[in-house]
Automatic annotation (TrEMBL):
A Pfam family matched in the record: APH
Protein name: Aminoglycoside phosphotransferase family protein
Ion transport among keywords: no
Originating species: Streptacidiphilus pinicola
Keywords for this protein: Transferase
Stored InterPro entries: AGP_Transferase, Aminoglycoside_PTrfase, Kinase-like_dom_sf
Keyword tRNA processing: no
Residues covered by the Aminoglycoside phosphotransferase domain: 38-210
Cross-referenced Gene3D superfamilies: 3.90.1200.10
Gene Ontology molecular function: any one: transferase activity
Length: 245
């Protein structure tokens, strides 16, 4: 009998692996609805949906391995990173999903609220928060919405050799800023930004991508701490913020 591996678990959701099957348990079925719908629409490889019985979604495992892990050097080739950029471009060129994305006002309000909590609760030094909030301002501008993954961290992009075999975890997919996806894919792996953009094949404002690095890290730190993760590990979110200083 296959062992049960806990991939991730916190009080919002959990993912288990049993052999070649991933079982995703989510208390919010709206997120699972988005995930299933987004995978059906996305023009990139995604896991096969084996069955769904709320609150559980069963997905087939993808071949290959994640392109990287946050806080660890990537062993994937530059060509694999370029292939990831090309896959993101295909997604961004696809028709928009038929549900709304998060608006600029909501993103700004969340950012300012998180910055205030980080300072008030002394989770991060005030000067670190304020400097990165200044940098994040460049991301807070109008954009033309595209089909975004919404949580395109490196652990969600699987590669085998120089090819992308699939992208997982689509529950945050929505119309959004193309540069946000590119920023999340390269968060903590700045050395591969050029490879990703070479595959993406379009002009991208690197200052805005850097601004999204700061914004994403600022809004993630408190949640990570409260859910048992350590954003202060080498190469992770706090290091990303320090690098902007």
């Amino acid at each position: 009998m296959d062992e049960v591996e806990v991939v991730v678990a916190h009080n919002e959701r959990a993912t288990l692996r049993v052999g070649d099957v991933f079982l995703k348990v989510d208390a919010d079925q709206a997120r699972t609805d988005v995930e299933v719908a987004a995978m059906a629409l996305a023009p990139v490889p995604t896991p096969e949906v084996l069955w769904r019985k709320p609150p559980v979604l069963a997905l087939a495992a993808l071949p290959g391995r994640p392109i990287a892990r946050l806080g660890e050097p990537s062993t994937a080739s530059p060509a694999a990173w370029a292939a990831a950029g090309a896959a993101v471009r295909r997604l961004h060129d696809a028709p928009l999903p038929p549900w709304p994305g998060q608006g600029l006002d909501a993103i700004t309000a969340r950012l300012d609220g998180e910055c205030a909590r980080l300072i008030t609760n002394e989770l991060l030094p005030a000067d670190l928060v304020r400097r990165n909030r200044e940098i994040a301002e460049a991301a807070l501008r109008p954009w033309t919405p595209v089909f975004t993954h919404g949580d395109l961290q490196v652990a969600h992009v699987f590669v085998e050799g120089d090819q992308v075999t699939g992208v997982i975890d689509w529950s945050e997919a929505a119309p959004g800023d193309a540069l946000f996806d590119l920023a999340i894919l390269t968060l903590g792996h700045e050395e591969h930004l050029g490879d990703v953009l070479a595959g993406y094949g379009a002009d991208a404002d690197r200052d805005v991508i850097r601004a999204w690095w700061s914004l994403r890290s600022l809004v993630a730190v408190r949640w990570l701490i409260e859910h048992g993760f350590d954003p202060d590990q080498p190469g992770c979110e706090v290091d990303v913020l320090r690098a902007r200083m």
